[in-house]
Design goal:
Blueprint (H helix, E strand, L loop, with lengths): L5 E5 L2 H23 L2 E5 L6 H8 L12 E5 L1 E3 L9 H8 L21 H16 L11 E4 L24 E6 L4 E6 L1 H4 L4 E6 L5 H9 L18 E7 L10
Helix pairs in contact: 1-2
């Protein structure tokens, strides 16, 4: 049975980012000591930018054993790696290019071709090789970073998407009709194998979705973020006061 998620409310985006950065650094130290590596699935969008910059800046950056950190992505827009909307580009510019992480430890989702389904299958092979998985096994990330959309989506798991019920593949291509775009995403089974999941949610525009995701009826077809309930991991929702403004005290 999944543990109850922890909700931590901070004053603003900067405070949320600082708390997240300190958690990242602590988990990195613990994971490298225990397993010799720290595997992370990064998120995109604007919210984690401050987090990535804090991780790249001293003194925090000096506490992280970057040669043993392995960076993956929870989802990606199907655009070239240098495109303004690329999640990889965002992380490269704000974090990866500024820390001593080996190039071979960075695993961007492949988006240079014209076949999203083939790209998803290719990234699944990457995961299987990196985590040394046998057939039928699912990778276990040390940390998965996620956000929350105003519509209740997380990663690229959107309301009503067929990917919400995917239980065979590790990575899926999904067409987002209202955005007229393809995306690649880790599937729910991968997210729910993580040791630690950290949601970063900031802004009043997320308040309604956050309240429904945490305190509303369980309806993951409408609120995909509710699917993320790792039975052998923990979930922390790190949110600012604006996003938490509609939460009811328990």
């Amino acid at each position: 049975m999944a543990a109850k998620p922890q909700v931590v409310v901070k004053g603003n985006l900067q405070e949320v980012s600082r708390e997240a950065a300190e958690l990242f650094a602590r988990l990195a130290t613990e994971s490298v000591a225990a397993n010799g590596r720290f595997s992370v699935a990064l998120s995109g969008g604007s919210t984690p930018i401050a987090l990535y910059r804090l991780l790249a800046d001293p003194p925090l950056s000096r506490t992280i054993d970057w040669p043993h950190v392995h960076l993956f992505w929870g989802d990606e827009r199907f655009v070239p790696a240098d495109h303004p909307e690329s999640n990889y580009r965002l992380a490269r510019e704000t974090l990866i290019s500024r820390v001593p992480i080996p190039a071979e430890n960075v695993y961007p989702m492949p988006t240079e071709g014209n076949d999203p389904e083939a790209a998803a299958a290719q990234y699944e092979v990457t995961l299987r090789r990196s985590f040394v998985l046998s057939k039928g096994e699912t990778p276990r990330f040390d940390l998965v970073l996620l956000g929350l959309g105003a519509d209740g989506h997380t990663a690229s798991l959107f309301p009503g998407s067929p990917v919400l019920s995917e239980d065979q593949r590790l990575v899926a291509a999904t067409y987002v009709g209202n955005l007229d775009t393809w995306r690649l995403t880790l599937t729910p089974s991968v997210l729910n194998r993580a040791r630690h999941v950290l949601f970063l949610v900031c802004g009043s525009e997320k308040a309604s979705a956050l309240r429904q995701a945490l305190q509303g009826p369980y309806d993951p077809q409408r609120l995909p973020a509710q699917l993320v309930r790792p039975p052998e991991g923990d979930v922390t929702w790190l949110v600012d006061e604006a996003a938490a403004s509609l939460l009811q005290e328990s």
